[in-house]
Amino acid sequence: MNPVPLHFDEIQVGVRGRSGGRTLNETDLSFSCMLSGGWHPIHADAEFARTAPSGQRILHGSYCLLIATGLAADLPYLGDRVLADLGVRDWRYQLPVVVGDTLYADVEITNKRVTSNPLRGVLERRIQLIKADGSVAHTGISLLLVNRETITS
């Protein structure tokens, strides 16, 4: 049974949600390097990384942003009411993310507004990428353009 998507007008500022977890592995680290083309030794050289503050190789911050927005995709659940992702701002890398970390996305609706087209709205979501120990690895703001039309089946 599929959940019923929320209507824009039902969503309250201050509502929070948490995604399921995702444990990162060696494949994630390899994808991080391959997709970005960034092979800095902090990502790719275990011997070098042992001397770094983290003591081990870290995943690219931009890869972690991809993970965070993926984990947060259905928070809140809007189904096909999402028309576009309008971008991310103020994204901060607060802690390194390493192979073996289990991550969750905490999402809070921080603002919402109707656009100049009354059939569209913008949701502002604060996304925090949380490690299993509760520490915040990354944080930032995501904006979604949402259809406000009443959808009938």
Automatic annotation (TrEMBL):
Family annotation (Pfam families): MaoC_dehydratas (PF01575)
Domain MaoC-like: 22-116
InterPro entries: HotDog_dom_sf (IPR029069), MaoC-like_dom (IPR002539), MCH/BMMD (IPR052342)
Organism: Achromobacter denitrificans
Protein name: MaoC/PaaZ C-terminal domain-containing protein
Top-level division of the source organism's lineage: Bacteria
